[in-house]
Specification:
The two termini are 38 Å apart. By secondary structure, the chain is mostly helical. The N terminus is likely disordered. Helix 4 packs parallel to helix 6, helix 5 runs antiparallel to helix 6 and helix 6 runs antiparallel to helix 7. The protein is 67% helix and 0% strand. The protein is built from eight helices and no strands.
Length: 220
């Protein structure tokens, strides 16, 4: 279907460049503020009180599983373009008539995931942490947290889905259920620690009543 030259563009060599440039941009836009935000939060609100081993394992799965996979695929894709190779050809998903349109949709989904992550970091402020609560924590109920209790993980999971669709590759698809499982295991542990913290326990209980959904509105 021809739509204002879109079909012509999707079939041009520039389309692959757009995919890689967009994916690289969202990788940086999503991940760049995290280290400084963690450092500033620790300086203002203290260290994280408690981080169980299982929670750390989950973090090392969903974080590198999203960012690390993308960085690897970006590098290999750039290698293919510059050196005229097909390193990833054997790992491509089965072709689909709407593949390029799906990838274009994934670009916008990826941009939204990055925007959501930025919004979460800004909204949490000094409460931002990889896990649990800090020494001076408070319950945040504004911004994305009006809709789900763990909005940052929505950004991670949407970014992981975008990895699959943008790169059209089996590697991120295989990792996708592992990332989701890590997030779904981590969230109840995190909430149990929040409820153990006397500084925020009562506020968080009220928050749980007002915002029912942990990750997916209407589902869980």
């Amino acid at each position: 279907m021809y739509l204002a030259g879109l079909s012509t563009f999707l079939d041009s060599p520039h389309y692959q460049t757009l995919l890689l440039a967009s994916s690289a941009f969202t990788l940086v836009y999503f991940g760049a503020p995290i280290p400084s935000a963690l450092k500033n939060a620790e300086k203002a609100a203290g260290k994280i009180k408690k981080e169980p081993r299982l929670a750390r394992i989950c973090t090392t799965i969903h974080g590198p599983g999203t960012f690390g996979t993308r960085a690897l695929l970006l590098g290999l894709s750039a290698f293919n373009i510059f050196f005229k190779r097909e390193v990833l050809a054997g790992l491509s998903l089965p072709d689909h008539p709407a593949k390029r349109q799906i990838q274009l949709f994934a670009i916008f989904a990826d941009l939204f995931a990055a925007y959501l992550a930025r919004s979460v970091i800004k909204t949490l402020g000094t409460n931002f942490a990889a896990f649990g609560t800090r020494e001076k924590s408070s319950v945040v109920t504004s911004g994305p947290f009006k809709y789900v209790r763990h909005a940052m993980y929505d950004g991670f999971f949407l970014g992981a889905i975008s990895n699959v669709l943008v790169f059209w590759n089996w590697v991120p698809l295989t990792l996708l259920p592992c990332i989701l499982l890590a997030i779904m295991v981590k969230i109840p542990i995190e909430e149990s620690l929040i409820l153990e913290d006397p500084n925020v326990r009562d506020d968080y209980k009220r928050y749980q009543k007002n915002v029912r959904w942990r990750l997916f509105p209407g589902i869980w």
